[in-house]
Amino acid sequence: MSPLLPWLGKAARSKAPAGQSPAPPANARRPKMEQVEAASWASRWTKAASASYSLAQLQAGESVTEVVLYHASGCHLCERARRVVGGLRAELGFSLTEIDITDDPELEARYREWLPVVEVDGERAFTYYVHEDAFRRKVATQPPGAKTP
Fold it and tell me: Fewer CB near the terminus (10 Å): N or C of the chain?
């Protein structure tokens, strides 16, 4: 949902053409161009610095982002996810734990229909497919070692 939609009433939201967001109200505050440019630059710099800082943390033995991959033998989607996550490990500097759910009835019940499952610092981040760019963004924006309540 667009951040502007809560400002609009239900009737206004329903009048928007399918697939398009309604126009914001005339009195809606818009950020100044300088703020937008500064936020964009800061976001790009933070993501790039975060990825390289995580690698430095890993080498120094400090806290890093924890990634857990739940997989099963004979699962072709799991093999693809293992290749993607494993290939990005050196670049992003996160700790990786792979868990095979095949012989564990509790894990089978919890994860079988969602395989592969990738959790980042305890939060389910990906199921079925791991897109490289989305994974980079998730790991780069995640504070290292942060746990979700």
Answer: C
142: number of Cβ within 10 Å = 20
Q: What CATH number did the domain enclosing 82 receive? A: 3.40.30.10
pLDDT tens-digit readout, 60-100 = 555 689 999 999 999 999 999 999 999 999 889 899 999 99
Please name every residue paired with 100 in a beta bridge, in sequence order, or none if there are none: 71
79 belongs to a structural domain:
yes
Structural domain total, the chain: 1
Q: Which H/E stretch holds residue 119?
A: strand 117-120
Is the model's pTM score more than 0.85?
Answer: no
Identity of the residue numbered 91: E
CB atoms within 10 A of CB 44: 10
76-92 vs 33-60: helix axis angle to the nearest 10?
90
Mean pLDDT computed over every residue of the chain: 73
